[in-house]
Design brief:
Blueprint: H1 12-53, H2 55-60, H3 62-81, H4 95-98, H5 102-143, H6 146-154, E1 158-164, E2 168-174, E3 180-187, E4 193-196, E5 202-203, H7 209-244, H8 248-256, E6 260-261, E7 265-266, E8 270-276, E9 282-289, E10 295-297, E11 300-302, H9 308-318, H10 324-340, H11 343-351, E12 355-356, E13 361-363, E14 366-372, E15 378-385, E16 391-395, E17 398-401, H12 402-412
Antiparallel strand pairs: 1-2, 2-3, 3-4, 4-5, 6-8, 7-8, 8-9, 9-10, 10-11, 12-14, 13-14, 14-15, 15-16, 16-17
Helix pairs in contact: 1-3, 8-9
């Protein structure tokens, strides 16, 4: 009886090589798993970041996300087979498990914003109330201070008329002939004190009443001559501006364009005049700058009165005095008439046996472009609502907003 063949035993060297190959295979497999794990984690972070900042994009790559989740699960099975701990990938969770309740967050943010806006208003009211009291105290303290009055008298000044409104308290400082040279203004909202005159306004720096008195007297003494000279120059400049309305050429332009010259507006930097249309819109601005007395016509400096009339005439000729509503209606008419001129529009009208009356008519609050049928009867009208600029279609005495037709058409689509 033949004996069974026995399997040839491996030599020691072969056993060593076999073990080495096995270990190398395991090492490569572990390295591959590690690399894939790291890449999956990074990819998961990217997916989460995209999910946070752009949910629209994450919807587009939803299929990729599912593949990644499946691959992650498969990888965990391999890790389990190798007795390695499985990894909990955050990108495998449902959005509801990883994302906060966005509705609550938005609601909380809106609530907080409203709450702090309300509290901010309360705090602002309290600040204004406190500053108003400071302004009132400082104004009363100056008005009743005999030493301050004596210092003013040395400069040839005295306290004149006191004015008060919701924003400020002011005292005029008059010279010997009753001319108001300066005005001390106490701001109720900020408690700041400023000096106004024909010069550019000066903001006082003092924080207490005693140092404020010293600062005021010092400023008056150093600037009174300059303030008087600038006051005289500003008066000359203002007289020249007022005379513009009497110029025959300017008066004719103002009449044709239904414009007028406004009264003076005194600001901290300049005295302003405006050429306005019937609606009170400021079309052209003419300033007299307190820094040096020069004119400024819509950004262009004019050194003196000579040549002012000619420059203003040219500016007014080029000015568009249309009101906001007139400009709006003009733009709306141009938009409609641009469509009317298109070949597609004309072809549709012709094929439908319709004729557009290009000359619009006005009826109450609407500008109407009538469309007539082959018998010459008005089939419907395109309209512009004058008060709002809205486009309408009027057919069978029924008024329809033009854009609502688009909405109705989209609703009818399956």
């Amino acid at each position: 009886m033949e004996s069974k063949k026995t399997k040839k035993e491996k030599t020691p060297d072969q056993k060593v090589r076999s073990e080495a190959f096995k270990k190398l295979g395991w090492i490569l497999l572990v390295i591959l798993i590690g690399v894939n794990t790291f890449q999956l984690a990074r990819f998961g972070e990217i997916v989460e970041r995209v999910d946070t900042y752009n949910k629209g994009v994450i919807d587009e790559i939803g299929g990729i996300r599912q593949d990644v989740v499946t691959f992650g699960n498969d990888l965990n099975e391999i890790r389990g087979f190798l007795l390695l701990p499985v990894k909990d990938y955050s990108f495998g969770k449902e959005p509801s498990e990883t994302e906060p309740q966005s509705t609550e967050e938005v609601q909380t943010t809106r609530t907080e914003s409203a709450m702090y806006a309300f509290l901010g208003g309360i705090a602002e009211d309290q600040t204004v109330k406190a500053n108003t009291q400071i302004a009132l105290n400082d104004a009363n303290a100056l008005a009743g201070d005999q030493a301050f009055a004596a210092e003013l008298e040395k400069l040839g000044l005295k306290t004149g008329k006191r004015d008060e409104n919701d924003d400020a308290i002011s005292f005029k400082m008059d010279n010997g002939d009753g001319t108001s040279v300066f005005a001390i203004v106490f701001d109720k909202k900020t408690a700041a004190v400023s000096i106004q005159s024909a010069l550019v306004a000066y903001q006082c720096k003092s924080k207490d009443i005693e140092s404020l008195k010293t600062e005021l007297i010092d400023y008056f003494g150093k600037n009174m001559d300059a303030a008087l000279k600038m006051k005289a120059l500003m008066q000359q400049r203002s007289d020249a501006v007022k005379a513009l309305g009497s110029d025959a050429g300017i008066a004719s332009i103002l009449k044709d364009k239904k414009m007028k010259l406004s009264d003076a507006e005194d600001t901290t930097e300049s005295v302003n005049y405006y050429f306005e249309n019937d609606a009170g819109d400021k079309i052209v601005t003419l300033k007299i700058k307190k820094a040096d007395g020069t004119y400024n016509l819509d950004g262009t400096d004019i050194k003196d009165t000579n040549g002012l009339t000619a420059v203003v005439v040219e500016k007014l000729k080029a000015a568009d005095a249309s009101t906001y509503q007139e400009k709006m209606i003009s733009e709306k008419k141009a938009e409609l008439e641009g469509i009317f001129a298109q070949k597609t529009f004309k072809d549709i009208m012709s094929n439908s046996g319709l004729t557009l009356v290009m000359e619009p008519r006005q009826e109450f609050n609407k500008i109407l472009y009538d469309v007539k049928d082959s018998s010459g009867k008005v089939a419907f009208s395109f309209a512009i609502e004058v008060s709002s600029g809205a486009f309408k279609v009027i057919k069978d005495n029924q008024e329809t907003d033009l854009y609502s037709i688009l909405d109705e058409g989209s609703k009818k689509k399956p």
